[in-house]
Amino acid sequence: MENIEIRTFDQGDRDWLIRQHQEHYALEEGFDDSFDVLVTQIIDEFLRDHDPACERGWIAQKGNQRLGSIFCVKLNAQRAKLRLFLLVPEARGHGLGQRMLQTCMRFARDQGYEGMQLWTHESHRAAGALYARSGWELTDSRPAVSFGKANVEQTWEILL
């Protein structure tokens, strides 16, 4: 995919990003409405409270079409948390996910974070493979019932 800009997330992206998470996770994962509530809460908290000096969100966009998102938020003084990493189906498999992940990790490193953490589900196999190729380590994996279905929740971490 050519001519893709990775730009800073802003208020105008809010509804699109919530809708994308609702649609994709309901269809692809079978998640219920409790996932929508969580995503809305994360985005609204970011818009209201984030510190632009050490936290940022990005949107991948080609022309007027948004293709994905990724966020870096403060977990504590030493560690950042990767959140809201999403690519629309038509943008997958072209290297955009790697580019977005590197953008987020570079930002975290540049802000002085020593490491990063993320939370996901085992069913996101392509994302897990991307994390592993990029140096992330799976540090926790446990069965859980979340968003209306049985899942295996995972925590991945990386030292920067």
Structural account:
This protein is 36% helix and 36% strand. By secondary structure, the protein is of the alpha+beta class. It has helices at residues 14-29, 33-49, 96-110, 125-133, and strands at residues 5-8, 56-62, 65-74, 79-87, 115-121, 137-146, 149-159.
Task: Give me some keywords for this one.
160 residues; alpha+beta; 7-stranded mixed beta sheet; 7 strands
Brief description of this entry?
The chain is of the alpha+beta class and 160 residues long. The chain has helices at 14-29, 33-49, 96-110, 125-133; strands at residues 5-8, 56-62, 65-74, 79-87, 115-121, 137-146, 149-159.
Give the topology.
Elements (H helix, E strand, L loop, with lengths): L4 E4 L5 H16 L3 H17 L6 E7 L2 E10 L4 E9 L8 H15 L4 E7 L3 H9 L3 E10 L2 E11 L1
Parallel strand pairs: 4-5
Antiparallel strand pairs: 1-2, 2-3, 3-4, 5-7, 6-7
Helix pairs in contact: 1-2
**Unreliable stretches covering 5 or more consecutive residues:** none
End-to-end span in angstroms? 28 Å
Q: Looking across the biggest beta sheet, what order are the strands in?
A: 1-2-3-4-5-7-6
- Class derived from helix and strand content: alpha+beta
Shape descriptor: globular
Element string (H = helix, E = strand): EHHEEEHEHEE
Strand content: 35-45%
Counted beta strands? 7
Outline the biggest β-sheet.
Answer: 7 strands, mixed
Question: What is the number of helices?
Answer: 4
Mean pLDDT: 94
Radius of gyration equals 15 Å
